[in-house]
Amino acid sequence: MQALTVVGETTGNEVINMAMKDVQSAVRERTPHVRRRCATTPIFPAMVTQMIEVGEESGQISQMLDKVADFYDREVDAAAESLTASIEPIMVLVMGAVVGGMVICLYLPMFTIYQNIQSN
Prior knowledge:
Layout (H helix, E strand, L loop, with lengths): L1 H9 L3 H15 L5 H7 L5 H13 L2 H59 L1
Helix pairs in contact: 1-2, 3-4, 4-5
């Protein structure tokens, strides 16, 4: 019960907080089908509700939720890795432009001075 409260409050999202309170009330009332409460809110993906259903039927809901958590951990890691891989070339180009701009700013006055000396 405390875990559901903590999850709802720490997200900072009122929709998720209300969904967690709804699930918490279903658990408190010992409703046999918590999955149905989860399925009524659109924030829970279908896979999560199906895994909860399997866990309810087999009596191993904590193991099923652990598997869901592991799946989403891997998914977040993969998304972060792909984001990092896509940002890396952009950062190289930006840094190249910054360094190139600094080089131009440093040498342009010297070239101007040399041209003025040669013309005089």
